[in-house]
Every structure is written in C-alpha cells, then in structure tokens.
Amino acid sequence: MNLTISGHHLEVTPSLRSYVMAKLERILRHFDQVVDVKVLLTVHNQKEKEKRQRAGCTLRVKGQDLFVETSHFDLYAAVDALADKLDRVVVRYKTRQQGSRYGSAKRLDDAGLTLASVG
Fold first, then answer.
1. For residue 94, what pLDDT band results from cuts at 50, 70 and 90?
2. Taking burial as the number of CB atoms within 10 A of a residue's CB, which of 7, 11, 35, 100 is the most buried?
3. Nearest to residue 97, comparing CAs of 64, 69, 68, 67?
4. Domains in the chain, start-ordered, CATH in brackets?
5. What residues does 8 pair with on adjacent strands?
6. Is residue 56 predicted with pLDDT exceeding 50?
7. How far apart are CA 58 and CA 7, in angstroms?
8. Are the C-beta atoms of 87 and 31 separated by less than 8 Å?
9. What percent of the chain has pLDDT over 70?
10. What is the rounded CA–CA span in Å between residue 86 and residue 27?
11. CA angle, corner 108, sides to 105 and 112, nearest 5?
C-alpha cells in the first residue's frame, strides 16, 4: 500500500502524520487489497469556523477509486470523521464485491442447474 499525506495551506507535522497513519490502519483490518491511499489535509480561510479544516482521502482499490471528504473546526476531529466515513465506505464496497461473486451461483441454481451438473 502506498500512502501519501499532503497538506494544503498547512505543514504536515510528524505527529499529525503518525495520527493519520494510525487512523488508516483500521481500514486495512477490513480490506487488505488497497493499492494506493492519498490523504489531503487543507485549511480554508472561511468565515465559518466549523468548516475551516478539511480532510479528504482517495482510496484506490482494485477496479475503483473511493473518495471521502470531511470538514470540522479541529483537524484531528476531521481526521477522526474521515476514518469513520472511510471505514463505512470500505465495508460497503467489500460487501458489494462479495455479493456479486455469490450472486452468479444463485442465478445458476434458480435456472434449474446445479453446481454439480455444471462442473
């Protein structure tokens, strides 16, 4: 897995980098076929303080890119919310992939064919 953490209008400190890496370890527990992860941490100069700090992540898996973005007034809280959203997206992607694999056998059985007669 290639991990890229970059900052826009802020410097990514070693403590922030290790915090993001620790939060993204949870993703690998659910799904180990991750090819590339790009995290972009930004600070916008907005009047609304609630949405000033943003964290975005592009997760490249086999055949698809998954994108999640969150905003919060604290960058660490934005990273926490990003990890939660990314976890839900990865679990949903994984269940969809498993459902499509087993759906073909179910359709064969519904058509009156059994797996023993096919093989």
1. confident
2. 7
3. 64
4. 1-95 (3.30.160.100)
5. 42
6. yes
7. 14
8. no
9. 80
10. 7
11. 140
53-61 vs 64-72, strand pairing mode:
antiparallel
SS3 9: coil
Tokens found for residue 26 = 């949870």
Alpha carbons 48 and 115: distance in angstroms, whole number: 60
Which DSSP string corresponds to 44-111?
---S-GGGSEEEEEEEEETTEEEEEEEEESSHHHHHHHHHHHHHHHHHHHHHHHHHHHHHHHHHHHHT
Across 80-103, average pLDDT = 85
Element (H, E) at 112: none
User: Are 19 and 39 contacting, i.e. CB atoms less than 8 angstroms apart?
Assistant: no
**Token digits for 113?**
């064919």
pLDDT digits 0-9 by tens, 7-20: 998 999 999 999 99
Structure token pair of residue 111: 């058509």
pLDDT tens sequence across 23-54: 998 887 777 788 899 999 999 877 766 678 99
